[in-house]
Design goal:
The structure holds two protein chains of two kinds. By secondary structure, chain A is of the alpha+beta class. Chain A has 13 helices and eleven strands. The mean pLDDT of chain A is 96. The chains are: A alpha+beta, B alpha/beta.
């Protein structure tokens, strides 16, 4: 059982701020009743270990996760998604220890795909990456508070972020199911249509992509690839991952023209590849180390994205503008990989 | 105004107890020095220059290098065990960012737990952070740390050699005395 402390109800914000338990914003007091209500939405025991971080000799229990979820402002019914997001972030492939320590200061971007996103009232449409939706804002915030309070990822402790980005407060949204014949992203990732999944990526802030005058999918791809083939991004030339969020106008043009998601991934991977000279012309030096072997392929190009499968493509956003977004994973794939977990499997204890 | 009960959101378990660095002693017999290179830019050059200086200061039988595939993860248990069986002294580094300095610290601590004197080489901004990591890993107050000026990734070779030569006596001291 977590330690308990008595405080004045009028003093919650000041008390939690003084203990460095918040992200700077007010929190909901994690009373035993609220935490119990959060835990009651899953079959997990309070001391169930959601994941471990051996690099910090720490582990995350369902109880501690629930406490931070209450603080974040989550409704109790959000907790299965919160647990799944945490499980994904604590997967070894994600390498959360480095994600929350790195000077690169990435956000933990979460994309929820499936029926629970609808049931919980998550926002997948207008302003999906902005604020104003309780589920989006608080599910993302719960994970960040977890990182601060349980993993010790705070400035002055075990977070070395140089700048960070606003997504470190919360960066969580739902996939807007794409028009036919595309399948939701969870299906393409191997999950059942009736499952709900959470995909986590250690990302930079979203890079907005504007193309308002070109309805040709080839042209749209060129614009998106230009955002991906950016010498200022750490992984470009080394091979990384990224999330492309197709707004409805761009998605509609692409899908109506018969392009599959697989084709989009392939085209974006290929068109974002870059010559070493482009990097050097922009002041980026070529690394020759074992971890970042920037050796061009036979065609003389380096990868921005490690492979087509490392380009995650989802649909989201509101109609009325030719906008999409690109969120690169902050570091090359050797450092961290995106992870997708299913809610049902996570809660039932099997994420295989 | 009323009094409410709230639960702590923090991690509360005490860090593992009883972890101490390896015993230090004067090195009189030839020893194998292993460099655990995190493969950050210029890390190998710095470590090599330090090793060259140590070969003048200590009876180094030979210098081995273990190059990590990634700076963003510590060496695994098996690798630590293998290195411990064939190393008399270990230098881990160079940590010049958040993730890599934490992982190089953990490399050093793993070898210390296996009885091998180790030192982690990091640049100045990351000293407070690795102190927090050392506490989290059960070796609070770990002091076998040599600090270099930051940055090192953009320095010329002659500059790297200069800072390595300046740091080498501290490295030798960390490896042989508490």
């Amino acid at each position: 059982m977590a330690a308990q402390v008595e405080i004045e109800d009028s003093n919650v914000y000041a008390y939690f701020l003084g203990r460095d338990w918040t992200d700077g914003l007010p929190v909901v007091a994690p009373t035993p009743e609220r935490v119990d209500a959060m835990l009651a939405t899953t079959p997990l025991d309070a001391d169930h270990v959601v994941g471990s971080i051996p690099e910090r000799s720490r582990s995350v229990t369902a109880e501690k996760l629930a406490i931070n979820a209450v603080m974040a402002g989550c409704a109790a019914e959000y907790f299965p998604v919160v647990v799944t997001a945490a499980a994904a972030a604590l997967d070894a492939a994600f390498n959360v220890n480095t994600v929350v320590t790195s000077t690169g200061g990435p956000a933990i971007c979460m994309v929820v795909s499936g029926p629970l996103a609808v049931d919980l009232g998550m926002n997948a449409k207008h302003n999906a990456l902005g604020g104003g939706n309780r589920a989006n804002a608080t599910i993302g915030r719960a994970i960040r508070l977890l990182m601060r309070n349980v993993l010790g990822a705070r400035v002055g402790e075990m977070d070395g972020s140089s700048l960070g980005n606003p997504g470190k407060v919360s960066l969580c949204f739902a996939e807007d199911p794409p028009p036919s014949p595309w399948s939701p992203v969870r299906v393409d990732l191997g999950f059942d249509i009736d499952e709900t999944t959470v995909t986590v990526l250690a990302s930079e802030a979203p890079h907005q992509i504007a193309n308002h005058l070109n309805g040709d999918p080839d042209g749209i791809m060129r614009t998106i690839a230009a955002a991906m083939r950016n010498p200022a991004q750490f992984a470009v030339g080394k091979g990384g991952q990224g999330l492309v969020v197709l707004g409805p106008e761009h998605a509609g043009a692409i899908i109506r023209a018969g392009w599959s998601r697989t084709r989009v991934q392939q085209e974006l991977w290929n068109r974002s590849r870059i010559r070493p000279e482009e990097l050097e012309d922009n002041g980026v030096r070529i690394e020759r180390s074992a971890q970042h072997a920037m050796t061009p392929d036979q065609d003389g190009l380096l990868n921005a994205m490690a492979s087509p499968d490392d380009v995650y493509v989802v649909t989201a956003g509101g109609h009325g503008g030719g906008w999409s977004a690109f969120l690169p994973v902050w570091a090359p794939i050797v450092h961290s990989r995106a992870v997708t977990c299913g809610v049902r499997r996570t809660i039932e204890g099997d994420r295989s | 105004m009323s009094i409410i009960m709230v639960l702590s959101p923090e991690y509360e378990k005490v860090a593992p107890e009883g972890m101490r660095p390896a015993e230090r002693r004067a090195v009189d017999e030839p020893v194998v020095l292993t460099l655990v290179d995190n493969c950050k830019p210029n890390a190998r050059a710095i470590l090599n220059y330090i090793a060259a200086e140590l070969e003048r200061l200590l009876p180094i039988e030979r210098v081995d290098v273990h190059a990590k595939g990634t700076s963003a993860a510590p060496i695994d248990e098996q690798t630590a065990s293998d290195l411990a069986t064939r190393s008399g002294l270990v230098i881990a580094g160079v940590g010049d960012c958040g993730g890599c300095s934490a992982c190089s610290l953990q490399d050093a601590i793993q070898l210390e737990r296996l009885g091998v004197p180790a030192v982690v080489v990091v640049t100045e901004p990351f000293v407070p952070m690795i102190a927090a990591f050392a506490t989290s890993l059960g070796m609070s107050g770990y002091s076998s740390i040599v600090v270099l000026p930051h940055p090192v990734s953009s320095l010329r070779d002659d500059e790297l050699r200069e800072i390595a030569v300046r740091a080498a006596p501290d490295v030798a001291r960390c490896l042989t005395t508490h």
